[in-house]
Amino acid sequence: MDINSSPIANASAPGATASSTPQTQQVLSSDFETFLKMLTAQARFQDPLEPIDSSQYAAQLAQFSMVEQQVLSNDLLTSLASQIGSGNMAELASWIGMEARTTAPVLFDGSPIVIHPNPAAASDEVYLVVRDSTGEEVQRLQLPVSAEPVEWAGVSSDGSAFPFGTYSFDIESHANGEVILSEPTETYGRIVETRRQDDGGTVLILEGGSAILASDVDGLREPPA
């Protein structure tokens, strides 16, 4: 009987995961008892004319021990990652209430939103493309060919205000009548929460519900008075 093809080897493969270390230890203990029973049965029913080499037993025991150590190591790494994620979340909690500079959708509550365009250097025309929470374009405004900040007032061409909600902004750079670059532009959104993900990572939740990684934040500032 080849231990490599047994259910025990498959159940204890290095890629397997466990919900907790105690549960993993219980499984390994149960599997090891089953493994010993299999070895005993293997020795008992072996062919007397072709006895199994004792080195095979040693190799199988060593293999199971390696699998056991790998699974326990994986549990330890998972626990360490969880602790690091919790520490990172606690550190980022000081960001709550700050405004993060990001390309994520931000909340429009009636106050103007400051846009930070970065048009292509070769452009001769630049447009601000405004999209609502569904991603649909709701406004297109021509801007100066400049990287200077501009304000989006949230007012349509007929003078009516756009409804409150989350909006995202793209900058379209044109040259000779052709679009040469279209990419999200940065704005500021207020951080209201830090949240830990299932994989141990930490995300920031902006006012309005947008979720961003801390690594995607290009700047922080105090909210304007």
Q: Which structural class do you get from the secondary structure elements?
A: alpha+beta
Total beta strands: 12
Number of helices: 3
- Can you tell me the residue ranges where pLDDT is under 50 for at least 5 consecutive residues? 1-20, 80-86
For the largest beta-sheet, the strand count, sense and barrel status come to: 5 strands, antiparallel
Q: Report the β-strand fraction as a percent range.
A: 25-35%
Output the helix-strand order.
Answer: HHHEEEEEEEEEEEE
**How helical, in percent, are the residues?**
25-40%
Q: Which geometry do the CA atoms define?
A: elongated
- Major beta sheet, strand line-up: 11-10-9-1-12
Distance between the termini: 76 Å
Mean pLDDT: 78
Rounded to the nearest angstrom, the radius of gyration is 30 Å
Quick summary:
By secondary structure, this protein is α+β, with helices and mostly antiparallel strands. Helices cover 30% and strands 29% of the residues.
Can you tell me about this structure?
With 225 residues, the chain is an alpha+beta fold. The chain is 30% helix and 29% strand. It has helices at residues 7-11, 21-44, 54-92; strands at 99-102, 106-108, 113-115, 125-131, 137-143, 150-152, 165-175, 178-184, 187-196, 202-206, 211-213, 219-221. The strands form three sheets. A five-stranded antiparallel sheet has the order 11-10-9-1-12. Strands 2, 4, 5, 7 and 8 form a five-stranded antiparallel sheet that branches. It has a two-stranded antiparallel ribbon with strand order 3-6. Helix 2 packs antiparallel against helix 3 (54-92). The longest helix is centred in the first third of the chain and has 39 residues, at 54-92. It is elongated and about 95 Å long. Mean pLDDT is 78; it is low at 1-20 and 80-86.
